[in-house]
Amino acid sequence: MKDKIKQKVIEAKKEAILDILTDYFNRVGYANATASDIAKELNISVGALYKLFNSKDELYFEYIKHQINIFYKNLLKETIAINNPKDRLKKYIELKFNTFCAKKQAFADPLLGDPLFFTKYNANNSSIIEPIAKYLEEQLKELHTITPLKITNFMQSAYIFNANTMAYIDYWLVYGGDLKSKVDECFNIALTGLIK
Questions:
Q1: What burial class does residue 47 get, using C-beta atoms within 10 Å of its C-beta: 0-12 exposed, 13-18 middle, 19+ buried?
Q2: Which of 61, 96, 141, 161 matches a 20 to 30 Å C-alpha distance to 5?
Q3: DSSP class of 80
Q4: Residues ≥6 apart with Cβ < 8 Å to 192
Q5: Which residues contact residue 92 at a Cβ distance below 8 angstroms, ignoring those fewer than 6 apart?
Q6: Which residue has the higher pLDDT, 194 or 27?
Q7: What are 63-94's pLDDT values in tens digits?
Q8: Are 156 and 193 contacting, i.e. CB atoms less than 8 angstroms apart?
Q9: Which class for 59: exposed (0-12), middle (13-18), buried (19 or more C-beta within 10 A)?
């Protein structure tokens, strides 16, 4: 019982830290952050930080997981009243683009600025993005009942759809521009490739 309580306390501390660090990483990015600066931002010692996270990299990957969970919860909240799968898919792109735009500084450093970062991250941490992939799979499966899709492996279609959104983000990270204005264009191109 004591171990379970201790674990819950540790998880609560980690979540509080990750919430606080959202603004910090949005301002500073990852490359410019140091363990001592992070500890100072949190008003704790570096030792206390390393008791919760073994390294700066572990902390950052936990931060990414935390951000993905927040995104997923927001996606469910924002799409619950939307009845059409096409509109839910478009809302997904809009939320994703808005999230990346809000965190541009965090993505401007060499680690996250690497267009393959999220591909590599997803391959190594597929369980973290699984709820989002399943969400897209459900939307595409429902869409197929209205408009037949070329690929009826809906999880594969979900990955293809998501890859189109990431292509727009990758381009924006390298060349800039107004990502938010590309929602409709991205949506149309992503669906055109999937619809028969």
A1: exposed
A2: 61
A3: T
A4: none
A5: 75, 79, 135, 136, 139, 165
A6: 194
A7: 888 888 899 999 999 999 999 999 999 999 99
A8: no
A9: buried
* Per-residue model confidence (pLDDT) at position 113: 46
Neighbours of 144 (CB within 10 A): 19
Task: Output DSSP code: residue 182.
Answer: G
Short-list 145, 142, 140, CA closest to 156? 140
Q: CATH assignment of 56-192, given 1.10.357.10, 3.80.30.20, 1.20.1440.230, 3.30.1490.190?
A: 1.10.357.10
Q: How far is Cα 130 from Cα 9, in angstroms, rounded to an integer?
A: 26
Length of the chain, please? 196
- Cα 52 to Cα 121: distance, rounded to the nearest angstrom: 21
Is the pTM higher than 0.70? The answer reads: yes
User: To the nearest whole number, what is the mean pLDDT of the chain?
Assistant: 86
**Of 177, 173, 32, 33, whose CA–CA distance to 113 is shortest?**
173
H-helix or E-strand spanning residue 97: helix 85-102
Helix (H, G, I), strand (E, B) or coil at 171: helix
Provide the pLDDT for residue 115.
Answer: 45
Domain residue limits, the chain: 56-192
- C-alpha R_g of the chain: 19
